[in-house]
Amino acid sequence: MKELVEIIAKSLVDNPDEVEVTEKQSGKALVLELKVAPSDMGKVIGKQGRIAKAIRSVVKAAASKDELKVIVDIL
């Protein structure tokens, strides 16, 4: 899942070198924390959070195959 979020984020931003994804286990859920450059934050979130919501939907669909609960946090 970490690689999926990383690939999606790097394709959206101007500074792909500054994309950082960390995994944390929180109970039964896997938490993925996405960090990008401050100038790229708007590109990852999108208008009214649409891109962020789309990223979460794709990750949730991929995780459902493994029956995991994945939470994507954008820091």
Q: How are the SSEs placed, and which strands pair?
A:
Blueprint: H1 2-12, E1 20-26, E2 29-35, H2 41-45, H3 50-64, E3 69-74
Parallel strand pairs: 2-3
Antiparallel strand pairs: 1-2
Task: Assign an overall shape.
Answer: globular
CATH class designation: Alpha Beta
Q: Rg, please?
A: 12 Å
Number of distinct beta strands:
3
Question: If helices are DSSP runs of H or I spanning 4 or more residues, what is the number of helices?
Answer: 3
Helix and strand composition category: alpha+beta
Mean pLDDT: 92
Strand content: 25-35%
Helix content, binned percent: 40-55%
Strand order of the largest sheet: 1-2-3
Q: What's the number of structural domains?
A: 1
Give me the CATH architecture, please. Answer: 2-Layer Sandwich
**What kind of sheet is the major sheet?**
3 strands, mixed
CATH superfamily heading = K homology (KH) domain
Oligomeric state of the chains present here: single chain
Which segments are poorly predicted (pLDDT under 50) over 5 or more consecutive residues?
Answer: none
